[in-house]
Protein: Glucokinase
Organism: Labrys monachus
Amino acid sequence: MPPFPSPTAIGIDIGGTKLCAAWVDRTGAILEHRSEPTSRQPAMLAAQILSLLQQLDRPPVAAIGIGVPGRVAPDRRTVLSGGYVDLTGFDLAGRLEQACGRPVVLDNDCTMALLGEMAVGGARGEADVAMLTIGTGIGGALVLNGEIVRGKAGAGQFGHVTVASPGEPCACGRRGCVETTSSGSALRRWIAEAGLDPSTTAQELFEREARGDAAARQVLHAWIGPLRLAIDSIVAAVDPSLVLLGGGLGEAAHRALRRLPAASPWFQCRVEAAMLGDRAGVIGCALTALDGASLRGVPERAMQGP
Ligand SMILES: [Zn+2]
């Protein structure tokens, strides 16, 4: 076992489809990584996470950070609501802390991804950033004046910006949220409705579109048009200097969005794919855990720039 100059941490990113775990050092480098399909039943998920932790645990691991989909209470230990994976009221942090004997920090998954991007990714040196993670659902997080915006608890739930009325039903109980039009699940629905092979990937849609395939172009437009509306609304509301698109489909959404610039000169904003890709979540989880807690908001080194 090589020596490590500083403590390390394990980041766990609970996605609607994929559960990712990474052993990360203080610079944000991933030393080891695991991913497997997510169990959606809370007790099974806890057992699955524990098994991953046992695989990655090493003497230098000082803490564990977990990103959960859904709204998280201000104490950063309690999940208030969930969507595809619902851990409402389930004491995941307490259970894992007891089992591992290491401090466990828990926060919203997109907040963790944004903290990762602020610390060692594409949001370094930025004070006002909105992030959306495009995966099974759509996560959201917001930094203003260098601090994560919490509101009462769940500020920045950008997946639930309304883009269609009445629209498809959403996990939040409303209809027409951008999660219902522009998530990975929604992309699969658009692909099915267009009569394309259900296994068609975003990359294949781009390739088909480049060959002049009208169905692929239509699917990409149906998927990304509402995301443009949501981003314009976010920019109108909070005027960030940067919108980051992360998650498994962040790159694809960014590429598809290039065809649809912001319509209003009032609400222009730079939109980029997350520099850390869909690993922003595990890196942010681990660095936040190493910082003791995210109570201080953005890590000091992020505020100082690269
Ligand atoms: Zn919703």
Summary: Residues 214-238 form the longest helix (25 residues). DSSP finds ten helices and twelve strands in the chain.
